[in-house]
């Protein structure tokens, strides 16, 4: 074992024969340990990579793991070559190193026939936008069906969830919430039974145990906060002269409160009989005692907040019973909706993303788990990265493929920030206290300077231990791992800026803006300039924010002072300039209004300036359309031709028409614009597989996306010296020399504001509406859910803060703009009620932080000299070190196939058939399992004389992976077919391109030459011939 690993890392790498959980704090070298363990299992333990299943949570992480593993194997093979290492390198590309969703999909593709899932379904993965359309279709059909057959029940549901029957949105949301709740459960019927037990309970004792436990937890939490506030008031009173009687009275209240908490700890429901009496605390007024007054105000507020949730338990149960009929109708309707949605997916032969885990779980439990038993024997090692973000289904799948003692899990509960996607850190937390699991903690940070590391220890030790569900133990505290982290270390900086009400504009200082976010962005821009003046490059600096909304303000602030930046503001994919312009073309074709025409003419594809547009309007004030007809006849005719042509043309072709106007795609669009256009084309291809593939249908498809927030791809290279801004979620797994954190406020859980709330443990709650005014009030279930989810939100926020504060390597600055700043006491009460994160961050006593206070109108306003921009093509510069590359094929200039999606499935089917069907003359019976539309192409291939000659080869192989080095570059790929004769090897690559032979030769000669070189490395005694078989041309093309 290499000496570069510390004792904890070595233990993680070497542990065998038992399930292992590795808790790896930020910067602990988790990925390095994973690769080292993979190498150790392959090299020392002799476990072939095809007997290892390594699961990650992003494609990028899976690809990075493959890349690092391949590099490590290559380096080892260079120093100590062996056939085994060569074989392992060849297996990397097809190994089970993937996301858990990709692994689930592979199970469905290989074994889905057990559940009646066709190959076509596994090839047709629905775009989220298409899923939304089909969900609405299923919903509409269910409503129509109930309107015919169960009209009164439907009226009851709509009256419950919508103020007006014509507004179906709230009812749709309610059904989708219940559907999502059911989809998170392994056993739907079990969850329905749980709901019935809850709503049909006749008294408190009949409620499910989990709800009774939550009931006591809710009261315990609130009464504990009240107790802490009362204790603070007692301490304040003790410091005031001549108030012994007051202190004695408060201590009496304190004792009664402790007795109440003791009864709650024992789950004694009779505590409810005394709770209001115990909280009848009279807070005496003392003039001039500001600290005492503040403590009293906090106590009074905490008592009021709690009492608002208190009602007799008998009334709570009665309300549940009254809501039971509505709940049962809602469940019944939701089940009908789910069944209809599944039927629609079967009709269109498609799967959505949510099907992957459910179907994989069904396959593994089907027929007494026969597939599960097979996989238990197949895998010697199961590795799970980022385990803290696992959900129940994923954890169950992992256990179903394990032999019981071969799961190696790596994660960090403190970095579980995907609760909104169903992540359950409690799964990992439970394993960390399981005596049957080997737990290992990586407690050295190799990323951040010492001040940053120690501040984080100080902060999270004080704060996390005040929460009800998290802690920061000695295992979580970390030390720096290498001496250089102690050099040139700087304290964490907090910049708290307050507004001066009497603001007088001065060009030397920050300009005023009525929007607080804009003012805050300008402060951050000056911090960027300050760090740039210290010597940091712009690309060393990243701005971290909680959500995307702040990016717009950062863009404006950076542009004002000439800071080079790249900020994906996610204002909506369909609002990006180039995509919006294309959609305006579509809108113009439909409505022919001046508004649409103006946008079309101003677009990059036509290129009118504002002055030209103004001249057009002056030429004919009545309308732009009329003015264009006489002012610019050529453009007018062009647009009229497009309007007539597009009435009978598919969507993808329409998009291609637009982007090729004036050669805009190649000559006018930026890299980012091209990225967005390519993405729009992909979505259009997906749409064209729908039932209504025309422009009007596509516009409806777009409208249903609710301005999809697809992040734009970031077309940056390492040489681009620009500041970036990203959300904390986007930054996970990354590190930066300088991090400036846009301090955040408290998040409001909007999931609790609707007419229905769901919770993984507590089920489904409905709002109780009180007649006659139909005023909504929370039911006991909603109160418990709010209490539970508020605590979970706080814990998730603290984990989000942990991720943010552990990204920087050298400097960390936290910035906030407040109306006023008042120092607080770090108590559980304040933790659960703080409004500004920075007020919490500065509270723990730490020598590793520095707090600065400024007023907005005293911050100097610096403006950088604008950079000279040069529009140059992107170039790839090969690094000096040895590298790994996958062979790429030059497909020439951009020519997007409008039928790309269909062509891909067509090509996959033909490839698979050519490989799988018997190597002889085929019969109709051989083709019976293949759609008739493929028969002609396959029979043409099979009947070709050269195909029949190839069948006579004494060695025939399909799908042969290869890997070899070429001037320190690793080439790898997969050859479709090899036929070996006595003195000749013939290599065949199948192509389905709709192209002539000359085009095929231009496209694929370089690829076939790489394949030939791979064979020459292995075989020197026989001549090698390479051919393309073109299904389009029904003939072979030799590549010399």
From TrEMBL:
Q: Where do the UvrD-like helicase ATP-binding domain residues begin and end?
A: 3-449
Determine if Cell membrane is one of this entry's keywords.
Answer: no
Any one Gene Ontology MF annotation carried by this entry is: 3'-5' DNA helicase activity
EC number per UniProt: 5.6.2.4
The UniProt keyword set, sorted, is:
ATP-binding, DNA damage, DNA repair, DNA-binding, Exonuclease, Helicase, Hydrolase, Isomerase, Nuclease, Nucleotide-binding
GO BP term, pick one: recombinational repair
| Listed Pfam families | PDDEXK_1 (PF12705), UvrD-helicase (PF00580), UvrD_C (PF13361)
- Positions contributing to ATP binding: 24-31
Q: What class of enzyme is it?
A: isomerase
GO terms for CC?
cytosol; DNA helicase complex
Identify the residues that the record assigns to the UvrD-like helicase C-terminal domain, covering every copy.
475-733
> Which reaction is this enzyme known to catalyze?
ATP + H2O = ADP + phosphate + H(+); Couples ATP hydrolysis with the unwinding of duplex DNA by translocating in the 3'-5' direction
Name the chain's protein.
DNA 3'-5' helicase
């Amino acid at each position: 074992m290499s000496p570069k690993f510390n004792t904890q890392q070595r233990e993680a790498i070497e542990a065998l024969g038992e399930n292992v959980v590795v808790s790896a704090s930020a910067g602990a070298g988790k990925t390095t340990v994973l690769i080292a363990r993979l190498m150790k299992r392959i090299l020392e333990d002799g476990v072939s990579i095809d007997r290892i299943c390594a699961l990650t949570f992003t494609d990028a992480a899976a690809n990075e793991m493959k890349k690092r593993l391949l590099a490590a194997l290559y380096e080892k093979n260079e120093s100590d070559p062996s056939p085994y290492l060569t074989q392992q390198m060849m297996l990397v590309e097809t190994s089970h190193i993937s996301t858990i969703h990709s692994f689930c999909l592979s199970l469905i593709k290989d074994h889905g026939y057990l559940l009646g899932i066709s190959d076509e379904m596994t090839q047709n993965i629905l775009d989220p936008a298409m899923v939304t359309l089909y969900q609405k279709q299923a919903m509409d059909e269910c409503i129509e069906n109930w309107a015919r057959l169960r009209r009164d029940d439907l009226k009851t549901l709509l009256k419950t969830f919508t103020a007006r029957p014509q507004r179906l949105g709230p009812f749709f949301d309610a059904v989708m919430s219940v559907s999502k709740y059911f989809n998170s459960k392994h056993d739907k019927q079990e969850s329905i039974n749980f709901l019935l037990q809850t709503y049909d309970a006749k008294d408190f004792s009949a409620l499910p145990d989990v709800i009774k436990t939550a009931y006591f937890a809710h009261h315990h939490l609130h009464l504990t906060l009240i107790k802490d506030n009362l204790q603070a008031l007692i301490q304040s009173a003790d410091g005031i002269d001549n108030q012994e009687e007051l202190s004695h009275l408060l201590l009496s209240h304190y004792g009664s409160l402790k007795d109440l908490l003791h009864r709650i700890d024992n789950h004694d429901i009779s505590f409810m009989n005394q709770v209001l009496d115990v909280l009848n605390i009279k807070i005496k007024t003392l003039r001039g005692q500001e600290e005492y007054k503040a403590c009293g105000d906090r106590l009074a507020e905490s008592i009021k907040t709690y009492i608002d949730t208190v009602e007799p338990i008998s009334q709570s149960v009665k309300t549940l019973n009254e809501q039971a009929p509505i709940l049962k109708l809602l469940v019944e309707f939701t089940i009908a909706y789910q069944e209809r949605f599944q039927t629609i997916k079967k009709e269109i032969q498609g799967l959505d993303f949510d099907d992957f885990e459910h179907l994989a779980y069904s396959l593994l439990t089907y027929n007494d788990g026969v597939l599960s038993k097979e996989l238990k024997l197949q895998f010697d090692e199961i590795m799970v990265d980022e385990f803290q973000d696992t959900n129940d289904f994923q954890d169950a799948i992992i256990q179903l493929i394990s032999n019981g003692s071969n799961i190696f899990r790596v994660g960090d509960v403190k970095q579980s920030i995907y609760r909104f996607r169903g992540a359950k850190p409690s799964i990992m937390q439970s394993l960390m206290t399981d005596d049957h699991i080997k737990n290992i903690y990586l407690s050295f940070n190799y990323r951040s300077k010492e001040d940053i590391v120690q501040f984080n220890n100080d902060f999270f030790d004080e704060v996390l231990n005040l929460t009800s569900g998290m802690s920061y133990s000695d295992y979580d505290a970390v030390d720096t791992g290498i001496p250089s982290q102690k050099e040139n270390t700087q304290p964490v900086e907090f910049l708290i800026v307050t507004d001066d009400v009497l603001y007088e504009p001065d060009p030397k200082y920050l300009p005023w803006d009525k929007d607080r976010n804009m003012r805050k962005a300008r402060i951050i821009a000056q911090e960027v300039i300050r760090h740039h003046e210290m010597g940091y490059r712009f690309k060393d600096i990243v701005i971290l924010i909680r959500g995307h909304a702040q990016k717009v303000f950062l863009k404006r602030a950076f542009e004002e002072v000439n800071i080079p930046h790249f900020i994906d503001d996610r204002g909506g994919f369909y609002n990006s300039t180039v995509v919006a312009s294309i959609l305006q073309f579509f809108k113009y074709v439909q409505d022919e209004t001046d508004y649409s025409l103006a946008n079309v003419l101003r677009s990059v594809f036509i290129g009118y300036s504002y002055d030209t547009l103004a001249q057009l309007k002056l030429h004919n004030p009545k309308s732009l359309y009329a003015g264009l007809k006489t002012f610019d006849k050529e453009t007018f005719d062009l647009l009229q031709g497009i309007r007539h042509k597009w009435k009978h043309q598919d969507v993808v072709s329409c998009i291609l028409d637009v982007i090729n106007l004036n050669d805009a795609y190649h000559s006018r669009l930026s890299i980012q614009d091209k990225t967005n256009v390519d993405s729009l084309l992909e979505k259009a291809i997906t749409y064209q597989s729908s039932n209504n593939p025309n422009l009007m249908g596509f516009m409806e498809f777009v409208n249903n996306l609710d301005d999809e927030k697809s992040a734009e791809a970031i077309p940056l290279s390492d040489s681009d010296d620009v500041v970036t801004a990203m959300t904390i979620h986007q930054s996970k797994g990354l590190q930066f020399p300088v991090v400036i954190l846009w301090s955040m406020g408290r998040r409001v859980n909007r999931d609790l504001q609707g007419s229905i709330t769901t919770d993984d443990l507590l089920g489904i709650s409905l709002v109780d509406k009180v007649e006659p005014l139909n005023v909504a009030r929370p039911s006991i279930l909603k109160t418990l859910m709010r209490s539970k989810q508020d605590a979970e939100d706080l814990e998730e926020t603290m984990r989000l803060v942990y991720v943010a504060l552990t990204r920087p390597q050298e400097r960390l600055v936290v910035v906030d703009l407040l109306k006023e700043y008042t120092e607080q006491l770090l108590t559980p009460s304040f933790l659960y009620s703080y409004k500004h994160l920075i007020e919490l961050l500065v509270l723990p006593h730490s020598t590793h932080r520095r707090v600065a206070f400024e007023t907005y109108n005293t911050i100097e306003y610096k403006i950088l000299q604008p950079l000279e921009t040069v529009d140059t093509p992107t170039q790839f510069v090969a690094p000096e070190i040895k590298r790994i590359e996958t062979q790429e094929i030059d497909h020439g200039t951009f020519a997007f196939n409008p039928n790309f999606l269909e062509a891909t499935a067509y090509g996959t089917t033909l490839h698979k058939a050519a490989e799988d069907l018997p190597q002889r003359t085929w019969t109709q019976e051989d083709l019976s399992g293949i759609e008739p539309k493929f028969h002609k192409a396959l029979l043409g291939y099979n009947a070709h004389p050269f195909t029949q000659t190839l069948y006579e080869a004494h060695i025939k192989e399909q799908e042969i992976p290869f890997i070899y080095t070429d001037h320190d570059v690793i080439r790898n790929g997969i050859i479709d077919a090899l036929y070996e004769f006595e003195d000749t090897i013939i290599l065949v690559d199948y192509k389905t391109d709709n192209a002539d032979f000359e085009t095929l030769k231009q496209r694929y000669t370089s690829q076939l030459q790489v394949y030939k070189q791979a064979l020459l490395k292995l075989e020197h005694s026989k001549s090698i011939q390479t051919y393309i078989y073109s299904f389009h041309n029904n003939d072979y093309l030799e590549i010399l």
